[in-house]
Amino acid sequence: MEILAFGVQADEKPLIEQGFAGHHEVRCLDVFLSEDTAPIAAGYEAVSTSVNAVLDSRVLQILADGGTRMIAQRSTGFNNIDLDMAGRLGLTVARVSYYSPYSVAEFAWTLAMAVNRKVVRASIRTRDFDFRLDGLMGRDMHGRTVGVLGTGKIGEAFARIAHGFGMRLLGWDIAENPACMELGMKYVTKDHLLAEADLVTLHVPLMPETLRLLDAPALRTMKDDAILVNSSRGGLIDTAALVAELREGRFTGVGLDVYEAEAGLFYVDRSLEAVDDDTLARLVTFPNVLVTSHQAYYTEDAVGQIIDATVKNVLDYTAGRRSENVLVPRT
Description:
alpha/beta, Rossmann fold, 2 domains
């Protein structure tokens, strides 16, 4: 069987080809799966997709009509897939339920420290041989309070680093993580956390209950000089409300690796085009905001684990096996 892999980055291609070697043939495309590109999959029983693919009812119908029977998503998140429609069409859907939590946690800290210590601004200045320190003053993290929204594997990894900095730990989640509590984390309400934290970081999945978890009222609850980091899903923050707060001069820094309307923007070169997303265009103009293109997971370790799991998902499908990665089982 030959698998068609959509949205493959240049760094990923040799790893995907190596992963499937000896099992199945794989064809890698750099284009993302969408209604326009879905017809390319005609004749392929299995396709692999990335987190920024669009797998709504129309795309799934095109895939099913073309003979696709299995979708292997190369990510943990699956909010981009209409699972009910996939079930009705008889499509098997699997995801990657686990990969290195350190990749995302460490990158979240990279964003936090970059905006705290004005690293991007300093780098731009020194390239112009401007070595002034004006406007580059940051703050010690030691002794300050961090609020971790979502204390699963990634949130725990982030908290361990914060503990190393000597920070006070506040947590919010539907269930308390004993490992975080051993670090001294105190679980509080979301509003309590937002009101007290000097650094707020998001590590919860995107679902109807968490959509725009940080809306306008929640953002207003935060300290004026707080740092906000989101390396989870863009839809957790009401971006328009965030822009409004930034225009009021609030927040020491904001580090975003995700954006709620990133599909069609992230992972492609739009540098020679006029971007018609006014909210994103405004967001990147703030000097205290750092936006990266959903790269927190992008380490050799994590990508290797993602590919290994994806290969296993396809092998399980062909063998008729079911694992914890299956979202819609084979019928």
